[in-house]
């Protein structure tokens, strides 16, 4: 089992991952600048429209994005309960002041979390780790040793998940699984770390034996191209950010956080 | 592009002159004063007892032993007139563990990895990738996921990654020790084809020599002290030095290290009966269905079948560690000893004196910082009095020749010692039934014999043993019954 599984056939799978990540940046900046519900809501609507049009609708509504839909309301509620009080007080209990102002902030926060996290999750699910490494090394010129080391380490995550399962069974077999779950969990985590290091060092030997780190200029078997499609993806990202900002200004809710 | 797949290369020569290596932090050198000369194109089977430094020599030739921080070299180790450490790219190394050497997620990328590192231009890479995959007979798409390959396919992929770099020297460190019998032949044949087509010099380490004899033309045996114990043509060395080789744990053709005496059938009685069992490691994803099997006291049941068929999962389910997806698992009173219900419902502590499990990789089950503490984990969980704990531990330490290592950390032991310790930890709580997952994996003939004797002794004391295994010698010489999962779901009496 591997989390670095290849996911061919998804729309945008061929787009340089660096462009996908860059495309989310403008909107994130806009939504961090302002704290209002309009900009974030418009952004969510745009995102849903864009992803659906791009053919990523099934990924958008899949279980993998569920965490966003659950986490966002939770952050919203905490802002409602503990956010800076302003306007009429609706409910009060100890340190909890629910006011008109905090409800607004809560809604705006929830929408912002969704608007920022949703594209990040959807785009990341369409990124193959190998392509990302190629993009980081060839497009952004990050050091190959670092990028490929991280990529190889990612492959070990799958083995570690299997190791964790086996370690759990082994602890039951050794007769110590009835009590002390927390202490046992810590010990098991340490054992997992030891196993991961051992696997890592064997992998490092295998990579070195294949000339990794040799003192010659490394070449790349795959091209990380950066062309029209990549600029288009970034353009769409900028467009969504601009639409969200414009909507907020027109609605009069644009509200830069530090003013 | 060549028709034959792998392009011919210039075979490398190997020279060791008084070469030695001491790993950092160790007192004694792993190899000492080695003198060896291998001509270009020779195919050498490298043998020797565990601890004679075979792997160290291979790693040295591959240039992956590291620098002064990692250890201390003496003498000279030369590949094609150059120091081995500086001739990366002239040699290629394949390691034992099929899981640990996958580097990339896609088949083609994995083979291309070495070529990229050597700075081969992109247009030159892909034809060589295709040629190398062709040479090892991996007829799969370039974007095939490497995670989905079998053990034999993974080792052939590692070999392809090495030969794509066109090394003059191919180094194989127990490439088939972890494979099922079909995988062994698969990899051996790929190596033979590659050696024929490229003409490269070949050095292979493997305990079980019979599979490799058709491929090699020279056998070199390292002695414990660092010199050569034997060197020559395979037929001569294996016959003339048979006694020495056996003492070193080398597995000579047609050797069976030990035959188990017949079991006492009269005292046999059932311990656990499985009826229509579906087993799954991840709940909801059964890997094996409708298994009927019975585990008897005083009998060794071998569970065999190809990689990935669900043998280990069945073993873990019989051991009460996994909940069956479907079917019944009924313990007899002789096993349950007062408990009710199926074993997976029993408490972890209650399993100790009833069913013991030895995992495929001993590291998974080690819990303590010393061998003695490791042996006391089970007795402690059973809340045995201190003197009883000590008595059991001392007895096991001497019976399994671990007494000199009582204070050592379990993770620092050798492969054979780790295996003995993992069996000993289970025996410390005297279970009535024992489940062993691949007990003889990667063992040389000596450690194999020790384990086999131990398992048979338990059988003769009335323990019911289940051994999940690929090892045909074990099945033939040691096991009393076999459940072959590939053929049938019902067991046949031998």
Largest interface: A-B, 54 and 68 residues
Number of strands of chain A: 2
Shape of chain B: globular
**Total number of strands of chain B:** 18
Uncertain runs of chain A = 1-6
Global structural class of chain A: mainly alpha
CATH superfamily of the largest domain in chain B: P-loop containing nucleotide triphosphate hydrolases
Q: N-to-C terminal Cα separation of chain B, in Å?
A: 53 Å
Q: What strand order characterises the main sheet of chain A?
A: 1-2
Query: What best-fitting shape of chain A do the alpha-carbon axes yield?
Result: flat
CATH topology of the largest domain in chain B: Rossmann fold
Q: How many alpha or pi helices of chain B?
A: 15
Determine the fraction of residues in helical runs of chain B and give it as a percent range: 25-40%
Strand content of chain A: under 5%
This entry's quaternary arrangement is heterodimer
Q: What's the pLDDT, averaged over the residues of chain A?
A: 87
Main sheet overview of chain B:
6 strands, mixed
Secondary structure elements and their pairing?
The complex is a heterodimer of chains A (259) and B (494).
Chain A: H1 17-23, H2 25-33, H3 37-54, H4 57-60, H5 66-82, E1 89-93, E2 96-99, H6 100-125, H7 129-139, H8 144-173, H9 181-209, H10 228-251
Antiparallel strand pairs in A: 1-2
Chain B: E1 14-23, E2 31-38, E3 43-48, H1 54-62, E4 71-79, E5 82-83, E6 91-94, H2 107-117, H3 122-135, H4 151-163, E7 169-173, H5 181-198, E8 201-205, E9 218-222, E10 228-232, H6 234-240, H7 242-247, E11 269-279, E12 288-297, E13 299-304, H8 311-318, E14 326-331, H9 333-336, H10 348-352, E15 355-358, H11 371-381, H12 386-399, H13 415-427, E16 433-437, H14 445-460, E17 464-468, H15 472-477, E18 481-484
Parallel strand pairs in B: 3-8, 3-9, 6-7, 7-8, 13-17, 13-18, 15-16, 16-17
Antiparallel strand pairs in B: 1-2, 1-4, 4-5, 9-10, 11-12, 11-14
Helix pairs in contact in B: 2-3, 2-4, 3-4, 4-5, 11-12, 11-13
